[in-house]
Structure prediction request, 262 residues.
Amino acid sequence: MAIPGIGMLKGLAARALRLVMPHDGRDNSAYWRGRAAEAGSAAVLWRNATYNGLVREREFAQIAPVLAALPPGATVLDIGCGIGEVARWIIAQRADLRLTGVDFPEMVERARREWPHAVPVEWVGASADEFVRPGGFDLVLSSGCYSAIRDRAKCVRALEAGCAAVKPGGVMLLIDPFHTSKYLARVRMGPAEVIDRVQAQGLHCEHSGGILFWPFREFLSNSRWPERWLPGAFALGERLLPRLGERLWSDYKVLRFRKPLP
Ligand SMILES: C[S@@+](CC[C@H](N)C(=O)[O-])C[C@H]1O[C@@H](n2cnc3c(N)ncnc32)[C@H](O)[C@@H]1O
Prediction:
């Protein structure tokens, strides 16, 4: 029998551990491969499906203007595409785009199986640091992928491969929880370092912002908060963000870069 409150205690203990333990920067590929079997959006986001839906709305609002500006038939790389949730939305907006989704084989296998559109997608089962296609894409999108690579050396290789994959004139859009604080970091790398590393590859940063007010993200994303209260609490957090400072208070950073034409 489930003991009420035990989940909350476990959550608090896990948070306290994050504060006192050293940051775990070991390769975590096995963790993500295993998560591909989890139900619905919990495979790639959090346990609260309503919260995940609200996250998608915020995320899609960041991607929409970039998609709208792409030329007809443009090529898009969804790096770390997971089970294809973002890819589905992209093709629902723009069926003319040629999309490539890269993730571990367990993830892309599920994305392929559950793909609802007639439009074909190129699914590639590979690690982001090993996927090399220089100048192949008008848009390279990471929705939580680069930051999920906790091993810094591997994350840097993946980021550099992503930069190389952008065509001249093309865009790289990162919607990723980049943090230096041990408490929030997946890979321990802040947005300033990411911007420096991407700019060192010849792209320039056009926009730097953030979404998902992190104190609320921490407590709502895996909670069992009633569905009727959650959207209001989420919206309050997102309204607080620009007032308090997106750089400091957002969980997911939104970084947009462009590769100049020669
Ligand atoms: C937070 S999930 C986001 C998934 C997807 N982009 C979405 O928004 O639904 C992070 C994803 O990055 C993938 N990932 C982690 N490390 C990776 C790596 N080294 N190469 C490719 N994908 C990786 C995971 O398998 C997972 O699907």
Observations:
- Residues 29, 32, 44, 80-82, 85-86, 103-104, 107, 127-129, 143-145, 148-149 surround S-adenosylmethionine (CB under 6 Å).
- The first strand starts at residue 75 and ends at 79.
- The chain has one domain: 40-258.
- The chain has a mean pLDDT of 93.
